[in-house]
Amino acid sequence: MKRTMFLLTIAAVSLLCLTAAWVWAGNVKITPLGTHEGESCRRDRAFLFEDPDGTTILFDVGRSVMGPSDPRLGKVDVILLSSVHSDHIGDRIAPALNAGTCGKPDTSVSMMPNSNTVEIAVKKKSKIIVGGQMHTFLQKKVVAAGGSKKQVSIMRFGGKRKVGGVKIALIPAVHSNGLSPAFLNKNMADALKPDGLTAYVGPDNGYIITFSNGLVVYLSADTGLMSDMETVVNRYYGAELAIMAIGDVYSMGPEEASWAVNELIKPKAVIPTHANEVSTKGGNVRPGSKAEKFMKLVKGIPVYLPLSGKTMEFDADGKCVSGC
Fold first, then answer.
1. Cβ–Cβ under 8 Å, residues 229 and 173
2. For position 111, which CATH number holds?
3. Cβ(302)–Cβ(324) under 8 Å?
4. Mean pLDDT, 10 residues at a time, over the chain (324 residues)?
5. Is residue 263 part of a domain?
6. CA-to-CA distance for 138 and 128, rounded, in angstroms?
7. Residue 211 belongs to domain spanning
8. Which residues contact 15 (CB under 8 A, 6 or more apart)?
């Protein structure tokens, strides 16, 4: 009898521990931050991630996050930046949500010379984690905006950093990373402009984010097809959710991006982004759009549209459990 009671007690405690672990694991919240509420528009790039432990990560603020006073932002622990191109670092922003049209957003508020990324980091006291030589450039800008250079951290391919319960790693992006002379001091800008040159700040990059519940997310950034998608993103990190640029010309188009998803990355779910056009109308995919083509070409897994302000929640296996 005593042995039976002992075994039952052990079983009950084990069940409670498993239940507690499951509850603690929680879900990752992902909120696209675009220019027009409930839509996926031409200038949309940004995503806000919230880990179950409360750690928040802002990716590629671009022109659609309305600076540090954007009401959609709470605390921002980390900002990730894939490149210093103006549409990612943020040379200008919208004066208000829904300003202009989805196809031609009003982004008339200048964030020069420091950038939207830097202004948000300084006001929110956020860390910035970047690769290449972007960190030394951003350190100068952060200090100029009233922050500390210690807010900006470098990371190289193959390494990782941990913030709260979240691990962040870099993945190469096959793209370019020229800095507009508009961000430089006058003498340097005047020297580059006549020859049409930009300042190079090292290679740009995508990211692998491993959240505390075990979910692994791949942020492709502006990239072309590359073998790292299979060997590193799939085989090493085992990404369950992929957020893929599909804009074409400057990165993969819907054909290339869908092939990468189907044949190389093999995630359990995917979110298309950076289409450089209007992807939705009334929250539904626009017929004839790149997003529609991508959705038709991806096989066997769900494709979720990034509707601005609409939070999606994902469990450890990449399954959307809310908001999709």
1. no
2. 3.60.15.10
3. yes
4. 48 44 74 98 98 98 98 98 96 97 98 97 98 94 97 94 97 92 88 90 94 98 97 98 96 98 98 98 98 98 98 98 95
5. yes
6. 9
7. 27-322
8. none
